[in-house]
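Support case: copper (II) ion complex. Customer-provided input:
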Amino acid sequence: MFKHFFIILISFTVSISTALADKSMKIGKKGKQEDVTRIIKVLMYDNYFEPSSFTVQPGETIKFEVENVGELVHEFNIANQTMHKDHQSEMQKLVEMEIILADSIDKMSMMDKSMAHSHANSVLLEPKKSKDLIWKFENTSNIEIACNVPGHYDVGMIAKVEIN
Ligand SMILES: [Cu+2]
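Agent response - structure generated as follows:
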């Protein structure tokens, strides 16, 4: 009897953690222009975002007009904490290869070395540059918008995203 209960408890715990892990990976997907219902202007400074938090509805498609008004290279990346951590090592490599410099991006060698850096969920911008990103949020949780240029996440270049 007791043994049975224990087994049930274990399988219950496993299924809960699987569900959570699965849920945290759902950050949405690249959105389509025709589905955009809201446009949000985002400014990137050294080292923070303005606005510093976002509230979105599940299923909503938002166009982010991202502009880097700082003096350094910055990234606007929609992901969760685990994805940001993974991406940070990728960015670290690009810095070590001197492809991403403090205030510029060596696009030629980025192409040469096939280190093309474009992901649907992020934009990487030199100072004074801007770019749009359309994102469809769906059944999302634990989303953070962050900059993964080495050191920036650690000093708090993160914007919270609340799904409401
Ligand atoms: Cu940054």
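The first strand starts at residue 29 and ends at 30.

Case will auto-close in a few days if no follow-up is received.
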